[in-house]
Write a structure and sequence with these properties.
The protein is an alpha/beta fold. It has two domains: 8-126, Elongation Factor Tu (Ef-tu), domain 3 (Beta Barrel), CATH 2.40.30.10; 139-284, Nucleotide-binding domain of ferredoxin-NADP reductase (FNR) module (Rossmann fold, 3-Layer(aba) Sandwich), CATH 3.40.50. Helices cover 22% and strands 35% of the residues. The chain contains six helices and 14 strands. Strand 3 and strand 4 (62-71) form a beta hairpin. It is globular, with a radius of gyration of 19 Å. Bound molecules: flavin-adenine dinucleotide (FAD).
Amino acid sequence: MAYLADFSTEKKYQAAVKKTERLTPADTEEIREIVLEVKQPGFECQVDQSFGVLVRTENEFGKTVHHRLYSVADLPAESNGKQLLTLLVKRCSYVDDFSGEQYPGVASNYLCDRKVGDEITITGPHALPFVVPDDKHANLILVGMGTGIAPFRAFVKHIYKQVKDWKGQIRLFYGARSGMELLYLNDKDGDLTNYYDEETFAAFHALSPRPHWSDPIALDTAMEARAEEIRHLLAQTNTYVYVAGYEKIRPMLDKAFANILGSKEKWETRKAELVAGKKWAEVIY
Ligand SMILES: Cc1cc2nc3c(=O)[nH]c(=O)nc-3n(C[C@H](O)[C@H](O)[C@H](O)COP(=O)(O)OP(=O)(O)OC[C@H]3O[C@@H](n4cnc5c(N)ncnc54)[C@H](O)[C@@H]3O)c2cc1C
């Protein structure tokens, strides 16, 4: 497991906001897609990487710099020799256990509040564990929740547009609170649907049963509905499982995989094999 403090903030770059668009409706959680143009040449962030955002803050303890990581949500592009980066960010807030007060998350609110033309400081690029296997016959089970779709959107595009000729099966399971939050799978931003023609690709989404409540998203139900196929993929040695999203995805997935394989012990054994073979990767935040 990597800690945030392990990610260097030494290399800094300035980036200008080229586009910022809210993807979710006003009465739901705010998730924005932001496109940045990196001012200095030489910054290259690939689909298997993330980058950091630095925010200067001041509180009763003095001035500090807040560093948070964001995944690349699209294939990196170039404009006049400068790199364009796309990110997805959810405006976070959290409740202090002690005082019960709600605090806005520093970096996510800072990013969501930036306007076109504003400049921000970024770091990186930093490694993400989602590596494209060398073997094109490898199968990939990708599971993302909320903004956890970001790295997989870039990853799937990279495989079908740049690596090409993928022979293994790719299954993307994606959970969101409501249909409108199914970023990139709804009508407006449905660019993942471009790959539905590919024989090797299928995406499945899961919604919360009550979108305005804080119920867990039924990602496990969506996966268990395809138990036979997942069992078949997990029985093969060249299957990789990659997971991205919020903390609550972890127990949900363990439960779903245990149900699919028939017992908790069977899943623990298979997961240990995946981890040992470097075929399990997760970015949980
Ligand atoms: C490798 C990596 C890639 C990431 N990629 C993305 C990405 O593509 N898009 C993205 O939006 N975030 C991503 N994150 C999470 C991001 O780095 C921040 O943690 C998140 O934006 C909150 O930071 P903040 O400064 O706003 O909150 P802080 O001021 O750090 O406050 C954090 C508090 O908010 C809560 N919190 C943090 N994240 C969430 C969340 N997502 N949902 C609910 N509560 C939360 C925590 O419980 C914590 O108490 C990634 C994290 C990692 C490690």
